[in-house]
Specification:
Elements lengths: L2 H16 L12 E6 L2 E7 L8 H9 L7 E6 L12 H8 L3 E6 L9 H8 L3 E4 L3 H5 L8
Parallel strand pairs: 3-4, 4-5
Antiparallel strand pairs: 1-2, 1-3
Helix pairs in contact: 3-4
């Protein structure tokens, strides 16, 4: 993927996240796009009420095609879930996603570097900060 490709797909994820800002209860609205080449394998936004998370919905849509793909996520995937369910970082790694590109770090105690660390420990290439300025507005109220 080129820088232009990465920015294109992250902008799509940001566009998705914008659709549910203010509708996801205590959770942030996150956009996730799973891509291989020019093909979108799955894309989603955090559901109203905060669950399911964007990553788990996009992975469900992508199915086994997610193996070896790239996921573009507007906010760091969770490293732990308050419900005890598998975290988004665990789900991405288990699906065999090869690379995760993240716009914004998550200061939540359930993420705060833990999601990225879990991905890296699983051998998933991660890039943090792509279009972070464009994504920042999505999380102003979440971080307040």
């Amino acid at each position: 993927m080129t820088q232009a490709d990465d920015e294109r797909w992250m902008r799509r994820a940001i566009e998705l996240a914008r659709t549910n800002v203010g509708r996801t209860a205590d959770n942030p609205s996150v956009g996730c796009v799973i891509v291989r080449g020019d093909a979108v394998l799955g894309e989603a936004v955090t559901a109203p009420g905060g669950r399911p998370h964007a990553e788990e919905q996009a992975l469900h849509l992508a199915g086994s095609a997610a193996r070896g793909a790239t996921a573009y996520v507007t906010l760091e995937p969770c490293g732990e879930r308050s419900s005890g369910a598998a975290s988004c970082s665990e789900l991405l790694a288990a699906a065999g996603v090869a690379r995760v590109v993240v716009a914004a770090a998550d200061s939540s105690p359930l993420a705060s570097g833990r999601g990225v660390l879990r991905l890296r420990d699983a051998g998933v290439a991660t890039d943090l900060g792509l279009l972070s300025d464009e994504a920042a507005g999505l999380y102003a109220a979440y971080r307040a």
